[in-house]
Design brief:
Blueprint lengths: L2 E6 L6 E6 L5 H16 L8 E8 L2 E7 L3 E3 H7 L4 H20 L12 E4 L6 E3 L28 H4 L7 H17 L9 H10 L5 H4 L5 H10 L11 H13 L20 E7 L17 H14 L2 E5 L5 E5 L5 H18 L5 E7 L9 H15 L7 E3 L1 H6 L4 E6 L2 E7 L20 H17 L3 E6 L6 H14 L5 E6 L10 H11 L7 H15 L5 H12 L9 H7 L2 H20 L4 E6 L6 H13 L5 E7 L3 H4 L10 E4 L5 H12 L5 H11 L3 H11 L11 H10 L3 H13 L2 E2 L1 H7 L6 H13 L3 E3 L11 E3 L2 H9 L3 H18 L4 H10 L3 H17 L3 H14 L3 H18 L2 H14 L5 H17 L6 H9 L7 H17 L3 H15 L6 H17 L4 H18 L4 H15 L3 H14 L4 H17 L3 H18 L2 H17 L3 H10 L1 H5 L2 H17 L3 H18 L7 H15 L2 H20 L4 H9 L2 H14 L5
Parallel strand pairs: 11-12, 15-18, 15-19, 16-17, 17-18
Antiparallel strand pairs: 1-2, 2-4, 3-4, 5-6, 6-7, 8-10, 8-11, 9-10, 12-14, 13-14, 20-22, 21-22
Helix pairs in contact: 3-5, 3-9, 6-12, 8-9, 14-15, 17-18, 18-20, 19-20, 20-21, 20-33, 23-24, 23-25, 24-25, 25-26, 26-30, 27-28, 27-29, 27-30, 28-29, 28-31, 31-32, 32-33, 33-34, 33-35, 34-35, 35-36, 35-37, 36-37, 37-38, 37-39, 39-40, 39-41, 40-41, 41-42, 41-43, 42-43, 43-44, 43-45, 44-45, 45-46, ...
Length: 1271
């Protein structure tokens, strides 16, 4: 209201803000004067300071105030929300201002972010502005009747209802709205239309604070809830009371544990409710100050009286529209029917005024409608108001589907419209709790039986996916298959894993459950018993030599961990995710192979849409590796699983069966079998039509049809589920709501913990067993916890229906308590516990479990899940070491998925937060170095390499750091930095000294020694021996990264010794256990190319070198690509294609110039080309340059140093310089003799001297020129 100008006070010279009202109406001028009067009476640092006021010219009043530098709160919130401390500080400042105003009986009435100013942009320097609509005392009546005063999204409910008397508690409500927005970043109430916004202020509850701000204290949430109470008497009385509460809040040292605040779920529940909105007498759009026709008051009172007789309550909103809500807590269908009748009645008594109905869920008992339903109703109302034509009752789709055939609902231009109610006689539909046969699935059952028979007869693994919507009958068909197989007496082992909504994505969740069932393991058994059962089960089939290893690794999957003190393999696996992943795959496959050797195995995965990627991959590898074993995996899934697992077993001849809806005839047969032959044809037809082929819907409809008084058949699944639950008494529903928090299955002890404590367990168990009799729950034959009965919802939709009835507050409380109970009961699934604590608002505990869950996902190779879990943990964590662990896990997962940029960022953050010497620091250094290498960003290596040198690692970090040391050493090799390489090699020796308990560290140390042996000492025998020792340490530790590297080094060692057959054997062994594609495949290709060149099988060598170059280019492997080119040049040279060799050499000249070590090798090849072309002098010069570089670097190109020395000698021989030639030949001969002397094995030494062409030629030259024999 008015314009603001910057001016200067002539007396003091200070700047002032002048607010000027131009061309205002009488009420506007009165309000302007009122603001001046209010400010003149208020003097406080938290209120903008009054200077003076007056009239500059006729009808142009002005108000002078202090000039403020900074920004208003709305501008600040547009950038980012405030922290909790900032929000409390700001609210305290505003409360100070209100305390002064309320003490003078002044109510602001328009408190909002735009009227709160942050001086110098500081939240602790807040000032309240704009007292233009303030009410100075109860007698002041400047605002005309019906005018909208205040800002709708921040005004109190009594303002939205146009209550005459508004006191300080209205400002308390507005401040609550402001504080909510500061902390959450979203308004407490918002709506597309004014009517929906006003209705939400009256009826809707904003989300609980801790649901949006997990770190908020319970006391802050409780204060905010009281400030936003709908009834003024439930709020703090004024600004002083709010200020006192906020100061007390700031004095609290820490939050109360939210899991220990309330002790039980309340009796409140969310119910389906319908809201009715009646448009104002005139169209919307008149603005906030529009005045309503006073004559409407009498008409509204008449409507209220008529509605009260029918059980409806009407309330008028500030804009003149009317809301209606229904008393009681009936079924969804009943609520919708009442709302429809109310809307028709209102329309008929208001001359056809536009009316709308929408349906949603209430926030709690007594809450009348949710914002979602209000918003939809307002949209319908607004759409109709802006169209031409007669008003009508507009209904949303949910309401229309809940209304039965008695209501005349039709399509119209604006959507769905209700035109009236018919009188229809409905028949009764009783329920008989009889078991139902499996009908209409003969073809699908025959397919599955045939698949299993093929498995057994052909000894071949098969995979089947049974797909269908919820309730279509997937589980029933699978159980019928199992029953058929067992009735035949065929030998069969059936392992069952069940998906669960809360466990969805938990690494190896379904596979672990299936294996626990196979071993007879219960989740709460003492650890020694779990280990014993697992070991006994493994011992039945697995070979004696492998039993301990298989049992130890399977123990990690099934939650029966073995001690690591006597197991090098287990210790190493727990310290390296790749080892654990490799060993888990191996143990699972070997166990399954052993089981299949005794009898066929059926692995049944129910609710696969809640499965996990790790289980899918483990089964995929088993289908590949055990292709000739008799086992069948049958997964039952909803269609949406294809989005989560788009390529599930697509390479394994997966047979997909899409379960179609039940046909009419089998559905009718089922109805008659359960209800009896006396059921009339019309009832059968109606039930079958409404079930629409869904087996669960059909059964629910039959039950409802048989119940006494079961009238008003619901039209939708939601209505059916609610009808089913609403028929139970209050306590049964409360028990079910508590049970639903645990997921599909629950236990009386856990449910009792949510309902008041362990002393209620017996009462809760009786209730739950009673629900078994009523066919809501089922009792499972085995329980995850031996001291507890395990009960499950009879169908997923029943669980979802009960869960949807929880209020937000109860849901958060329940998950926190459920997490604690499961923790005490022995639950070992970190993903499940993290989910409970997360949903319960216990962020720190959730983050700790998210870390464990993400590390488990890494162990199983499920990197996408690991990223998702670590991201969620990071959003909740606060403690630096915990955040470091989550960042480190994310970095490793992102690295494995190829997101190298993201991996480095995460690793750098982890490194900043990690405790020096910890395993987390080791993982972060390892990830950071690996990622920087793959990015080829050497500048990013500076910090992790420096940290690597100076860290003093704890024992469990040495394995990861040893791998990082090795990576750095390899980098320094290619950079030809011998001295720095030696520094890191010696440091690796120091940190690995005495770590006999960590074979993975020893393996990496031996590989580092192997690199030094071949690149510095040019010793192929040393390379071979160190690589062998590294491989032996691998056998003890299972470290995945060492295995291919050590095997390739072994193969290379044999090749450099001329033992080509042994080298081929090692390569074949490597590729049998490692992927034939990717980095391993390229490494194998390079090693074979080198061997082919040395055997002068040049055509094969050229072809393989070209393949390596192409594949390396696709993968961005620059060093592999350059190596492939070098071998390609040499192959062409030896087959006589000198020009082709030269052409290729010229193509790669620039690329080689940036690689010092490979550049030296390039010079060797170029010298060979020039020598072959007859340019002996140029060849000698080039060879001398390469030789000088080798001496300068202190390193030689490991597999071509003899070639370099030979070319030097050959070039000088060609030039006829006998002295220089003799000297060069002597250099080559002595080097060959020195290296041969290091080989103690006579066979290997002879092969080294005789099987390699360059060595044979060197010996020939020595005999010819020096009359000496090398050997």
């Amino acid at each position: 209201m008015g314009q603001i100008f910057r001016a200067r006070d002539r007396h003091t010279g200070e700047p002032v803000a002048v607010k000027v009202l131009r061309a205002g109406t009488v009420p506007h001028i009165a309000r302007f004067v009122q603001e001046a009067r209010a400010l003149s009476e208020l003097s406080h640092p938290r209120i903008v300071r009054y200077m003076t006021h007056g009239v500059a010219e006729p009808d142009c009043p002005y108000l002078a105030m202090e000039w403020l530098e900074g920004e208003d709160l709305s501008t600040r919130l547009a950038r980012a929300r405030l922290t909790i401390d900032e929000g409390v500080e700001l609210a305290s400042g505003v409360a100070e201002a209100l305390c002064v105003a309320h003490g003078r009986r002044i109510v602001h009435r328009d408190l909002k972010p735009g009227n709160i100013f942050l001086v110098d942009r500081r939240v602790d320097q807040v000032k309240v502005l704009d007292f233009g609509v303030a009410r100075l005392d109860a007698a002041s009546k400047i605002t005309p009747t019906g005018a909208v005063v205040g800002t709708p999204g921040y005004m109190a409910p009594e303002q939205a209802q146009n209550v005459r008397t508004v006191d300080a508690r209205a400002d308390v409500f507005s401040l609550g709205c402001v504080l909510f927005e500061c902390l959450t970043g979203s308004p407490a109430f918002s709506g597309e239309h004014l009517v929906s916004l006003l209705a939400k202020v009256l009826y809707a509850e904003p989300p609980p604070l801790r649901e949006l701000v997990p770190g908020a204290k319970p006391a802050l949430e409780e204060l905010l809830s009281r400030m936003l109470a709908k009834r003024p008497e439930d709020r703090p009385r004024d600004g002083a009371a709010v200020l006192s509460a906020l100061r007390a809040l700031k004095l609290q040292v820490s939050a109360v544990d939210p899991a220990r605040a309330p002790i039980a779920l309340t009796t409140d529940e969310r119910r389906t409710v319908s809201v009715v909105l009646l448009a104002a007498h005139r169209a919307e759009g008149g603005g906030a100050d529009e005045t309503l026709d006073p004559a409407e008051s009498d008409a509204l009172e008449a409507l209220r009286r008529g509605a009260a007789v029918r059980g409806w309550r009407l309330e008028r909103l500030r804009d003149g529209s009317v809301t209606a809500w229904m008393g009681g807590a009936g079924l969804a269908t009943d609520q919708a029917a009442q709302a429809a009748r109310c809307a028709l009645w209102l329309r008929g008594r208001t001359g056809g005024r536009t009316t709308a109905v929408a349906t949603g869920r209430s926030g709690a008992a007594g809450s009348r409608a949710t914002g979602e339903a209000i918003e939809r109703a307002a949209q319908l109302l607004h759409a109709r108001v802006t169209e031409e034509g007669e008003g009508g009752v507009r209904v949303d789709e949910t309401t229309a589907r809940l209304l039965d055939g008695r209501f005349d609902v039709r399509e119209s231009g604006a959507g769905l419209a209700l035109y009236g109610e018919r009188v229809i006689a409905e028949g009764a539909r009783p329920l008989l709790g009889k078991p139902t046969p499996c009908v209409g699935r003969r073809r699908e059952l025959a397919e599955l039986e045939q698949m299993f028979a093929g498995c057994v007869e052909e000894q071949q693994a098969r995979a089947a996916l049974l797909v269908g919507t919820a309730g279509i009958g997937k589980s029933r068909l699978a159980h019928e298959l199992l029953a058929q197989l067992r009735r035949r007496g065929e030998p069969l082992a059936c392992w069952i894993g069940r998906g669960d909504a809360l466990r969805a994505g938990a690494a190896l969740g379904l596979l672990g459950q299936a294996l626990r069932g196979a071993c007879g393991i219960r989740g709460d058994e003492p650890l020694p018993e779990r280990r014993g059962k697992l070991s006994s089960r493994v011992a039945l089939r697995v070979a004696a030599s492998e039993r301990q290893r298989v049992a130890e690794i399977l123990g990690e999957i099934v939650g029966a961990p073995f001690p690591e003190e006597k197991s090098d393999l287990l210790r190493a696996a727990r310290r390296n995710a790749q080892i654990m992943s490799d060993q888990m795959h191996r143990a699972w496959t070997e166990f399954l192979r052993a089981e299949c050797s005794a009898q066929p195995v059926l692995l049944l995965l129910e609710d696969w849409h809640w499965g996990d990627g790790a289980t899918g991959r483990f089964i995929d590898s088993a289908l590949r590796d055990l292709d000739q074993s008799p086992w069948l995996v049958l997964a039952l899934s909803r269609p949406e699983a294809s989005e989560r697992f788009p390529k599930l077993w697509h390479d394994r001849r997966l047979h997909v069966i899409h379960l179609a809806p039940l046909g009419r005839k089998p559905s009718e047969r089922l109805v008659r079998q359960v209800l009896g032959d006396g059921v009339d044809a019309e009832t059968v037809k109606r039930i079958v039509a409404q079930a629409d082929g869904n087996a669960f819907y059909l059964e629910e409809l039959i039950r409802r049809a048989a119940e006494p008084g079961g009238e008003g058949l619901p039209e939708t699944v939601v209505a059916m589920v609610q009808s089913r639950l609403a028929a139970l008494d209050d306590e049964d529903r409360r028990v079910l709501r508590a049970a639903s928090i645990f997921g599909e299955a629950s236990w009386p002890g856990g449910v009792a913990a949510l309902l008041g404590g362990a002393d209620r367990a017996a009462h809760v168990e009786r209730r739950m067993l009673g629900l078994v009799e009523r066919e809501v729950l089922v009792r499972r034959p085995e329980s995850r916890f031996s001291a507890e009965v395990e009960l499950a919802f009879r169908h997923t939709l029943l669980r979802e229906g009960a869960y949807a009835m929880l209020t937000d507050e109860d849901r958060a409380l329940g998950h926190g308590v459920a997490g604690e109970w499961l923790e005490r009961a022995g639950e070992r699934d970190p993903k499940l516990l993290a989910t409970h604590f997360d949903r319960g608002g216990v962020g720190a505990r959730a983050a700790a479990y998210y870390l464990r869950a993400s590390e488990l996902a890494l162990d199983t190779g499920d990197c996408e899940t690991a990223i998702e879990l670590s991201e969620r943990g990071i959003s909740l964590g606060r403690e630096p070491e915990l955040l470091a662990g989550l960042k480190a896990a994310m970095g490793e997962a992102r690295f494995r998925t190829g997101d190298f940029q993201g991996a480095f960022r995460a690793a750098a953050e982890a490194l900043r937060l990690a405790r020096p010497g910890s395993r987390i620091e080791g993982r972060a250094i390892h990830s950071g170095i690996y990622t920087a290498l793959y990015l080829r960003r050497t500048e990013l290596l500076v910090e992790p390499m420096e940290r690597l040198l100076r860290t003093d690692p704890e024992p469990d970090a040495i394995g990861l750091l040893a791998a990082a040391f090795f990576s750095v050493i390899v980098l320094l090799v290619w950079q030809a930095r011998r001295d720095t390489m030696d520094l890191y090699r010696q440091r690796l020796e120091q940190v690995s000294r005495g770590v006999v308990a960590d074979p993975s560290a020893l393996a990496w140390m031996e590989l580092a020694r192997a690199m030094w042996a071949i690149h510095v000492e040019r010793d192929p025998w040393g390379l071979l021996q160190h690589a062998r020792r590294a491989s032996a340490h691998h056998e003890r530790s299972g470290v995945g990264g060492v295995f291919p590297l050590s095997q390739f080094c072994i193969a290379t060692g044999y090749a450099l010794l001329g033992l080509f057959d042994r080298a081929e054997e090692e390569l074949a062994r490597t590729l049998a256990m490692a992927p034939s594609t990717g980095h391993e495949g390229l490494s194998a290709g390079l090693t074979r190319t080198m061997m082919l060149v040395d055997q002068r099988r040049t055509a094969e060598a050229s072809a393989l070198a070209a393949w390596v170059v192409k594949e390396a280019e696709l993968r961005g492997e620059q060093l592999m690509r350059l190596n492939g080119w070098l071998y390609g040049i040499e192959a062409r040279l030896h087959e006589g294609a000198v020009e082709a060799a030269e052409s290729l050499a010229l193509q790669i000249r620039d690329a080689m110039s940036t690689e010092p070590y490979l550049g030296m090798a390039y010079l060797v090849e170029l010298a060979g080309i020039r020598l072959a072309q007859g340019h002996a002098e140029e060849a000698a010069d080039i060879a001398d340059r390469a030789f000088a570089q080798a001496r300068c670097f202190g390193m030689g190109f490991f597999c071509r140093h003899a070639t370099l020395l030979l070319i030097r000698a050959e070039a000088r021989c060609t030039l006829g310089d006998r002295d220089a030639a003799g000297e060069a030949i002597r250099d080559a001969a002595e080097d060959l003799q020195r290296r041969a002397a290091r080989i103690p094995d006579p066979v290997a030494r002879q092969s080294f001297l005789e099987n390699l062409p360059d060595h044979r030629r060197t010996r020939e030259l020595a005999r010819t020129w020096l009359l000496e024999d090398v050997g």
